[in-house]
Design goal:
Layout lengths: L1 E5 L4 H12 L3 E6 L18 E5 L14 E4 L6 H6 L1 H22 L2 E7 L26 H21 L3 E6 L2 E2 L10 H11 L3 E4 L5 E3 L1 E2 H13 L5 E4 L4 E3 H12 L5 E4 L14 H7 L7 H13 L3
Parallel strand pairs: 1-2, 1-4, 2-3, 4-5, 5-6, 6-11, 7-10, 8-13
Antiparallel strand pairs: 9-12
Helix pairs in contact: 1-6, 3-4, 5-7, 5-9, 7-9
The structure holds uridine-5'-diphosphate.
The site of uridine-5'-diphosphate has 15 residues, from helix 5 and strand 8.
């Protein structure tokens, strides 16, 4: 296959590029490097099956030659990133999705949208099945990301229904691993950086809110299976092992061999109180489930950060 990955210089995009190249496919990455980085893909440049185009996918996308799949992964994705770049976040979710869908239609390619558990907002149902419509504040600080992704899902389904484009929508839950930016503001990179420096771990609120962390290799395997499937509807991919943020912080302190303490800070506006994927659909239809334990995944991520990322 010849695949295009928008946002392919980001955390998830670069792991996907690596995965598909290793399977013998050709990969083109488009990225404007707003939150992505060439350092994530520099090791791929020597591969003749790899191409990089620096471009903003909110503008017209021109890619010569055939394409079998368009994977739209471009977007700021951490709460502080989309707070810094609210308008680019809305534009890449809305205009970028429209451009990427148009390209997939033109090439007769499968389109995959990187959607998110944020479409469920601050959920009133836990765990969240794909049938749950969510509880999103459209005008809050997270609304720029949540609503852009909800619009992107609507646009994706419209292209499927009106133009017959084969579509895959992966609703990605919290994922962690090597190549996260240490300053992206998310819990795992913050806690690891703080623990390695012996600084206090910043817990927002009382740390009783929950998240369910999926190691990046499990996520990539799920995405590859979904792409090969024929499910033209959203599928949750994430790890259902739900923990409080405080427990996650304590595990990181232990695994880093750190003596850091916890420092409690104000809870950000609209911070979801719980989050856990219902993965019954992925299990049944894709035969997928996560395999990397939190301890193993955190060890690998800590090694990456320790090595001076
Ligand atoms: N969080 C925290 N301390 C930090 C960073 C995040 O307590 O230094 C909390 C945050 O308030 C949220 C959870 O950890 O409840 C996960 O935050 P993250 O930014 O990783 O992603 P989210 O799941 O909110 O998109």
């Amino acid at each position: 296959m010849r695949l295009l990955i928008t946002g392919g210089a980001g955390f998830l995009g670069s792991h996907l590029a690596e995965h598909f190249l290793a399977e013998g496919h050709k990969v083109i990455v488009i990225d404007n490097l707003l939150t992505g980085s060439l350092a994530n893909i520099s090791h791929l440049f020597a591969n003749p099956d790899f191409n990089f185009i620096k471009a903003d996918v909110t503008n017209f996308i021109h890619v010569p030659g055939k394409l079998d799949a368009v994977l739209h992964f471009a977007s700021p994705a951490s709460p502080i990133d989309y707070a810094h770049f609210p308008i680019p976040t809305l534009k890449v979710g809305a205009l970028g999705t429209h451009k990427a869908l148009g390209l997939a239609k033109d090439k007769g390619a499968v389109f995959m949208l990187a959607s998110t558990s944020e479409v469920y907002g601050d959920p009133r149902v836990n765990p969240q099945p794909e049938t749950y419509w969510g509880n999103v504040n459209p005008i809050g600080p997270r609304g720029v990301y949540d609503e852009a992704k909800r619009f992107a899902e609507a646009m994706t389904m419209a292209y499927h229904r009106c133009h017959g484009v084969p579509v895959r929508i992966v609703r990605i839950f919290n994922t962690y691993g090597p190549r996260m930016r240490k300053n992206d503001g998310r819990a795992v990179p913050n806690f690891i950086t703080q623990a390695l420096k012996g600084r206090p771990l910043t817990i927002y609120g009382r740390g009783r809110q929950t998240r369910s962390l999926c190691y990046v290799s499990d996520l990539v395997r799920g995405i590859a299976l979904l792409l090969k499937s024929s499910i033209n509807a959203p599928v949750n991919i994430g790890n259902p092992h739900e923990l409080t943020i405080r427990r996650i912080a304590e595990a990181i302190i232990r695994l880093c061999g750190s003596r850091s303490r916890l420092a409690f800070k104000p809870l950000p506006v609209d911070d979801p109180k719980v989050r856990r994927p219902d993965i019954a659909l992925a299990r049944a239809k894709l035969g997928w489930k996560p395999e990397v334990s939190l301890e193993e995944g955190l060890r690998r991520t800590i090694d990456y950060f320790r090595a001076g990322a």
